[in-house]
Structure formats: C-alpha cells, structure tokens
Design brief:
In the N-terminal section; belongs to the glycosyltransferase 51 family. In the C-terminal section; belongs to the transpeptidase family. It is a single chain. Among the domains are: about 60-250, Biosynthetic peptidoglycan transglycosylase-like (Penicillin binding protein transpeptidase fold); about 395-530 and about 565-640, Beta-lactamase (3-Layer(aba) Sandwich). Helix content is about 40%, strand content about 10%. It has 26 helices and 19 strands. Helix 11 (about 195-205) crosses helix 12 and helix 17 (about 405-415) packs across helix 23 (about 570-580). It is elongated, with a radius of gyration of 33 Å. The protein starts with a helix and ends with a helix.
C-alpha cells in the first residue's frame, strides 16, 4: 500500500524501465516541439485595432525575456526551489514525499518538479483523444514513472530557461487564464514584464490550487496566506531581501480585473455592427480545408492555433452600408433589409450590414411571424446572430429577376449577340418546358426586344425564350461557377444534371440565394469575367508570424488569405453583359439602346458615375432585390422576412434595396476617380 501511495524511487534507478521505455520514447520527441493552445486574434483592417479573440484557453505565448524576473523567481520558489540543481527529477523531493506519504498512509505530499509538471501539461496539451488526456493526468504510479523518465530526457534536450518559459506559458491560473500572459491580464491588467513581487507571488501561488487560492471569489484570506508563503520562500532563496519581502507582504492584494473578449458576440461596442462580418469569417473559416479535414477540426484550430487575422472589411464602405441600409429600425419590423459589398477582381468582402443588432440576447424579441413556428419561437429582430446575409447554412431568399444575369452571360458566352431580337409576347408558351406559360409583369414589356431592352425592362418572356435557344442548364451551371450553391431540396433537384435542361423558371429567380453570393457573382461581371472566391480576410499569420499557407491538389503552396481567381466567362462576354446591365440603372450603354425606360432608372443619378445592375422581385413581392456594380465595387441588397417567406414585403418596400445599393456605392466611392466600363467588341454586339 505504501508503494502505491508513494512516488516510486525505482523510477530513478532504472527499475520499471522495460515497462515504460516504449511508452516514453516516442513521446519525448513531441515535448521538444509541443506548444500549448494559443488564442487567435481578430483585427480591424488597420491591423492594429483588436476586435475580438477566439479561444478555449485564453493564452498568449510570451518569451522568457518578456516575463519579469519576479515571476520567474516566484514560480521557482512556489513550486520547485531546487529547479536549478536537479536534472528533471529531484531525488531529495522524492525521498521526502515517500516518507511523508508513508506516514500518512496516503498521498499527502507530491514530488513533481517544474520539469515533471511541464511534461504533464505538454502531454495534456498535445493529446488528440480523451484517452490520451486521461493518461497524461491520471494519478497512478505508472504515469508518475513515465513522467519522471520523460522529465530526465527533456532536461537533456532543453535548457532550464526553455523549460521555465514553456512551463509559464502552460500553467493554469484560474478564471480561464492559461499561461502567465493571460493571468497577468485577467488579474492585474498588466503584461508579465510589469508584475511586482507581490503580484508575481499571488499568481505563482495560484498554480497549486487555482480555486482554493482564488483572490477574486474568496475573501482573500487563503490567497493572501499563500502569497505570503511564496514571498517568504523568495526571501529564503535570496530572490528578495527580508525587508522587500516584508513590504510586499504588508500590501493587500489589489486586483485590476480584465475580462478578455471571446468570439463575435464580444466585439467591442464601437464595432458591434461588425458582428455579422465576424460571424461570416467564422463560417468561412469552418469551410477551409487548410485548417483541417472537417468543421470540428477547423474551429479547433481557430480557437487554439494562435492566428493573427486581419479583416478585409473596408471601414468607409461599411459605414456607408450601415448608413444606407433601408428600413433602418429593425426593432418594429419582421422585414430584414441587408446589403453585402464585394470587390471585383479579389473577391474580398468590403461590407456587410443589416437592420438588425448582432446579439445573443433574444429575450426582448417578439414571437416569430411564421404561424407554424409556435408561440415560444422568437423572431429574428431586433437581435439575432443568424447569418442573414449569407456565408452560413441558411438557404437565403428567392432572388427574382436578378437571376437573369446568368442566362444573359451564358448566351453571350455561347456566341449570342447583344442585338439578338425577339418579339416578346405578354404570355409565352414554351414547348420545351412542358407547355409552361410565363407572363411579363406588365403589357408594356411586350414587343420587339434586344438583350439591352429585355434586361433593362426585365422582360420574362424574352429570357425564357433565350433559355430555350441556349439550354437552361447553361445558365444553371454558370451560376454554380459564379459561386451559387443550392441549399434546399427543391433547388438541388431542379439543378441536377438530368433536370436542369427543363428548369425554365430558373431565369425568373425562383431559387434561393444570399446577398453574399449575388454580390460576388455580379462582381465577376464587373471584373470582366474573372471569378474570385468570396473571402473575408486581408491576411492570416501563424503564431510564429509567418503567413498561413495551404497546398493545392496540384501540389502548389499558396497563402490562405490571397485571392483565388479564375476566368469563368470571356472578357468580351462580361463586357457585353455589363453593357446590357447599364440599362436597368438609367445609365447609357456604350453600344445599344435601352428601349425608353427601365426598372431602376434613378440609380445612375444617385451613384453619379457609370453603374450597372438588375432589380428582382418575386411573386406577390414576397422579397425584393437590387444588385448593382461599378468597376470598383459590387453590392447586393434584399428585403424579406427571414422567418416567414410568405410574409410579402409588398410594393411599398420593394424600392428599398435599390436605394440601399445606389446610396452605398455613392458614399463608398465619394472622392475617388471615376472609372469607365470597357465597351464590348463590335463582334459580340452584332
């Protein structure tokens, strides 16, 4: 029984070596390179303003040279006063613990050196399974033997300074403070370099039992007693003079607490409206193979990997989007109006705004407007963290005639001319789409049309006819190449290869889409056919300061934060599509005529520079959209009820997205040089 209770001296003399050698050998190498989990930091575009952090264990690795000698001396005095004399295992400590434990008939005293404690923490931090965590921390003689052997090996590989540095960055101090940097911040709002002897002794005293000696929740009697013990030990070891120790002991424990932010809901109040963008970053991160093979691994990397992340958001554009989003007071309306702004040629998302408050507190939200949701289900306003703008799992909203951009591009890319004419009737009977008979929104849209006028007036029957000429599946596949994803069973069924050729209603925007997708799809047209994946970051750096990279399937190493672009349609086809898309906005195309009127003819005057785009409404005006772009920016805005798609916004609110996009582009581009669209070639005009 004594042998089981004591820490076995046999570990020092080689007894039990055969039983532990194989278990220890492969782990010692891990300890040389193992680093503890570290907090990831999210910064504003200036790279300096901290927005929030992501962590499970709040920790920032700090070099020993940046840690006050007071801390180094206090932790040695508190935990292992012979640290600089032994070689990983202290024989005197083992013998002392053996005798004490034998007398108490149990485990009353430990013999763990700082090196042994570091080994235990490193094994815990590098564990990949719950079983490995248990093996690293369980109270058994076999585990202690392994720990001792590994401590001896570690001291052959690492210097005392390296071991102490790693220990101080791994130890737990309570209140989610892992490592000395977090402890100094949480308890004293200081860096480790600035801690006084009394503060250092307080923190060193916590390692033994963070809850028992907690100065925050207790009356500080136990915490003060433990601190004073450490100060006395520092004096005995010659780290402090008796007078300095006495002066430090006379001080009350004076805390200056800090609560470090964690995750998007903790974004500073000044930037709280950026919470939706922060949430988009998380969703984007969880989809990146560079950070792991599945969502769980990727989010674990975010919370433990120590990354430095700088957002691609542009403060001026974000301010414009927040200012101009319509139906601004979302507290009294179920209708969400949001806008996303993308940068052509990079895919970087420059702004995301919606008439909602980013908050987890739904207590004051009214019941959902969806009659099938039940009385206890809260609405999405005024507070929500739902990804209403895209980037998450929500399907989005029917985008109406903004989808006409896809058959327009597909037709031009297939060789059709902008001047292609068709006498579009009010009602069109399709023989390809099973006798389907779509109609136009009004009789004024009927008559001879070209791509310019048919796009400017949003003539349904023209674009259904055009789909028949090229094949509806070409528009569907092109939409996918431009970043659209089918998130409902109905959309997936219609988009399937065997059914897409019959999906005539695709051009009318019956599919769900998000403003994030639509802004980036139209940004491709603005970039003359060059599609770039939507991306929320300017840069990502590893904990060692190097850019975060990934390896493509072709074996090429690239930075994760760099734009990922490819040519999807020809530049001339994209230029021709833009020429037609100038018609809806009241702008003047370079090569054709718009037919006298358009669906959003106020946009050109508001933006004050060349602009293209497209309106979109659904049946009964359940949702309304506008997507507009200049050579510099593309913006998509919608208005709909996210809780109940059958709750129609009505004609009165259908103009809101038009104003939101036009005014945002105007304000974001103010004082910037006016850029012109490149005209299409005469060949594609026809």
């Amino acid at each position: 029984m004594i042998a089981a209770a004591a820490y076995p001296l046999a570990a020092l003399t080689g007894i039990g070596a055969k039983a532990t050698a194989h278990a220890v050998e492969h782990k010692t190498g891990i300890l040389r390179t193992a680093l503890p989990a570290e907090t990831s930091y999210l910064y504003a575009p200036d790279g300096k303003t901290l927005l929030t952090m992501f962590y499970e264990e709040y920790r920032k690795y700090t070099k020993l040279s940046e840690i006050s000698p007071n801390v180094q001396q206090a932790i040695v005095a508190a935990e292992d006063n012979r640290f600089y004399q032994h070689h990983g295992v202290d024989p005197k400590g083992v013998a002392r613990a053996f005798v004490a434990n034998a007398r108490s008939n149990g485990v009353s005293q430990g013999a763990s050196t700082l090196t042994m404690q570091y080994v235990r923490m490193a094994l815990r931090d590098s564990a990949k399974t719950p079983k490995e965590v248990q093996e690293a921390t369980q109270q058994t003689s076999l585990r202690k033997i392994k720990e001792m052997r590994m401590a001896l090996d570690v001291e052959k590989e690492l210097s005392k300074e390296q071991i102490l540095e790693r220990y101080l960055n791994s130890a737990y101090f309570g209140h989610r403070a892992y490592g000395i940097y977090a402890a100094a911040q949480i308890f004293f709002s200081k860096t480790p370099a600035d801690l006084t002897p009394a503060e250092a002794a307080t923190l060193a005293g916590l390692v033994k039992s963070p809850s028992e000696y907690d100065p925050i929740t207790s009356d500080q009697k136990d915490a003060t007693g433990r601190r004073n013990y450490v100060l006395d030990r520092m004096a005995q070891l010659g780290y402090l003079s008796p007078d300095a120790a006495a002066a430090a002991k006379s001080e009350p424990i004076q805390l200056r607490l800090t609560s470090p932010p964690n995750d998007c809901a903790s974004v500073e109040e000044k930037y709280r409206t950026w919470g939706f963008y922060c949430d988009y970053l998380k969703n984007w991160w969880s989809s990146q193979p560079a950070f792991g093979e599945n969502r769980l691994e990727r989010m674990d990397k975010l919370r433990r990997g120590g990354y430095r992340i700088v957002l691609a958001l542009d403060p001026k554009t974000q301010e414009a989007a927040e200012k101009n989003v319509g139906a601004k007071d979302g507290s009294g309306s179920p209708f969400a109006n949001g806008i996303v702004v993308a940068e052509p040629g990079t895919g970087r998302i420059k702004a995301m705004a919606v008439n909602r408050k980013y908050s987890l507190d739904l207590s004051e939200n009214p019941p959902s407007s969806n009659p099938e949701a039940g009385r206890n289900v809260k609405a999405n306003y005024p507070n929500t963290v739902a990804p209403l703008l895209g980037g998450g799992t929500l399907p989005g909203y029917q985008a109406g005639s903004t989808f006409k951009m896809f058959p327009l591009l597909a037709a031009l890319n297939s060789g059709k001319k902008l001047s292609t004419e068709f006498n579009a009737p009010y009602r069109y009977r399709s023989r390809i789409y099973d006798d389907w008979q779509p109609t136009n929104a009004s009789g004024a849209m009927s008559g001879q049309q070209t791509m310019w006028s048919a796009f400017g007036k949003s003539v349904n029957t023209y674009w259904v006819w055009m789909e028949e000429q090229i094949g509806a599946e070409k528009g569907v596949r092109l939409a996918e190449q431009l970043g659209l994803r089918w998130r409902t069973d109905v959309d997936r069924q219609h988009a399937a290869p065997d059914r897409a050729p019959k999906w005539g209603a695709f051009t009318l925007g019956v599919s769900d889409a998000t403003p994030l997708e639509m802004a980036n799809a139209y940004a491709t047209v603005a970039a003359e056919g060059r599609y770039c994946e939507a991306i929320p970051v300017m840069s990502i750096f590893n904990r060692d300061g190097t850019p975060t990279t990934y390896t493509t399937r072709g074996g090429v190493t690239r930075e994760v934060a760099k734009p990922r672009c490819r040519q999807v349609v020809s530049a001339d086809a994209a230029r021709a599509a833009t020429d037609a898309a100038r018609c809806p906005t009241g702008d003047t195309p370079a090569k054709g005529g718009c037919g006298g009127w358009s669906t959003a003819d106020s946009v050109r005057g508001t933006v004050g520079r060349p602009v293209a785009g497209k309106t979109g409404t659904t049946d009964s005006t359940r949702s309304a959209w506008f997507v507009g772009y200049t050579p510099e920016l593309a913006a998509a805005s919608f208005i709909a009820d996210p809780d109940n798609p059958f709750n129609a916004v009505g004609d009165g609110l259908s103009q809101v997205p038009i104003g939101a996009v036009a005014e945002t582009l105007r304000d974001a581009l103010k004082d910037k040089p006016v850029r012109q669209f490149t005209p299409p070639s005469d060949q594609i005009v026809g």
